[in-house]
Amino acid sequence: MSDTEKSMQTGGIAAVRPVRSILFKCLMIIGAFTLIILVITGAVTYYLQMTNFQEQSKRRIRNVGAYLSFLMVNEGNNFRDYQTYYMDHYEELDIPYDFDSYQDAYANFHRLFAKNYPDKALTVDINYNDLSDEVKHAWFTYYHEYWVLTFEKAREAFNLPYTYYLVMKDDVHDVVYMIDGERTRRKDNGNLLYLGDTYHNDHDKYAIMWRTWETGEEQDDCLEFDNSWGHTYCYYTPLIINGEKMGVIGSEVLVADVNRDILNQSLLLMYRIGCIMAGGMGLLLAILYVGFIKRTRRLEQFVALYSENKDESVAEDIEREYKAGDEISSLGGQIAHMIHEMENHIRNLSRTTQALASSRQHAAELDVLSNRDPVTGIRNKSAYEREVQLIEKSIRNKEAVFGVAWVDLNYMKQINNTYGYVKGDEALRKLCRVVCRIFAHSAVFRMDNDSFAVILLNEDYRLAESLTSEFMRALGEISKNDALEGWERITAAIGYAAYDPETDENFESVERRAETAMFERKRQMKALHIV
């Protein structure tokens, strides 16, 4: 061996010693720093995941309460009548336990209603309180089955163990489980549903529930307690319909005292890293660049790619590539897990948003249908009463300028008896088209079977007299047209009245004068043999 080689070897050895020392110090520093970071990361990860889980759970049970309250409030007086009947008769009602659809009960109710009240409509021609006991029982059966199924589906959709609706007896601090998302069989007959399950809930122990009921407002806190489901958070939503407190909606979610899976994963992560550090410290410096810096940059590229494209397949690429069991692999696995969790959370939020949007759309469609006359397509008596309320307000504010026209189809019963109800409906639609064409700037409503009301506004209000004459001329031409069928040659009487703030105290006064004018016109037409 030459001196040059010895010198290179000596120089090489001398050069290596500081490197070894630096590596050792780096190992010590990195080891200590990594250990501290892992402990902190494990604790923070555990705390954040627990906190995130709890917050998501609370949001979920708040959302289901809001969703169910939205559906119940939209039912209005129907739900109030349902609750009153339930509380008065639940001990004597027999409802099957195993129903999975309310359609049979719904069909039975409509069959009995049509049988007992032919040619009548509920809430239009006959009130709920005037129904016979048999029809009321059929209505309650289908309505209760509908709400039980609604609560069960909400529970499943939001992945909750329990949802229910309570009627509060605050004088004795009892609660009645009126709608129970978990069915119970009757002890005397297992084929029937147990109704009216009542419990005494101490005011202090269930303070949040009672405060929700007493104030009629949602509380920021959840009631936390142990029951047959386990350790749960329970959130209460007050149900208020038309300003009247009806009850409280309860929704529960399971929350473990200690999330052992998160804790075990955190401890296992720290254990694996400790073993790697103890057994592979010598290899750490050799693969520092290749095994750390390069892979870290690669992981950074994955994260940037996901941030740019929001593609969940990036998580799968990370899981396939980072399986070595070291810190970077663990970090990659956590990032992949986080991406999956974020995507799942976004999908859940999207489904929840779509469900709520669908419910709102359905409620809006029902609201439109409830205010439309099915025969003519114009607004019905319910819509008319809403419009009257607005005008009454303008009368009180001294701002009202309006009139009322009342139109009544002649010989409606004769048309139905002679040509049938289908032709009678065509006659109504024909008259409706004439009314809507003449009074094009005003709201037209179908009232009783053969009557229409027009609230005269703006130009129609100013030209009421000439429009009334034009209306009568138009009907005169129709009635004299021999080319038309008998049911098409319609005649009608019309009367109108304008609001006079000096003599009219309310809308009804104007409406009454318009009807009187219509009947006077009908009398004149009979005298002239026009009808």
Give an overview of the whole structure:
The protein is 60% helix and 13% strand. It is of the alpha+beta class and 531 residues long. It has three domains: 53-254, PAS domain (Beta-Lactamase, 2-Layer Sandwich), CATH 3.30.450; 287-370; 381-527, Alpha-Beta Plaits. The strands form two sheets. Strands 3-2-1-6-5-4 form a six-stranded antiparallel beta sheet. A four-stranded antiparallel beta sheet has the order 8-9-7-10, sandwiched between helices. It is elongated.
Tell how many strands the DSSP assignment holds.
10
Order of helical and strand elements: HHHHEEEHEEEHHHHHEHHEEHHEH
Q: What is the CATH topology classification name of the largest domain?
A: Beta-Lactamase
Structural class by SSE content: alpha+beta
Any chance you could write out the topology, listing elements then pairs?
Blueprint: H1 3-75, H2 77-89, H3 103-116, H4 133-157, E1 162-169, E2 174-180, E3 197-200, H5 207-215, E4 223-227, E5 230-241, E6 244-254, H6 260-286, H7 288-309, H8 313-321, H9 327-370, H10 381-396, E7 403-409, H11 412-419, H12 421-438, E8 443-446, E9 451-456, H13 458-462, H14 464-479, E10 492-498, H15 507-527
Antiparallel strand pairs: 1-2, 1-6, 2-3, 4-5, 5-6, 7-9, 7-10, 8-9
Helix pairs in contact: 1-6, 1-9, 3-4, 6-7, 7-8, 8-9, 11-12, 12-14
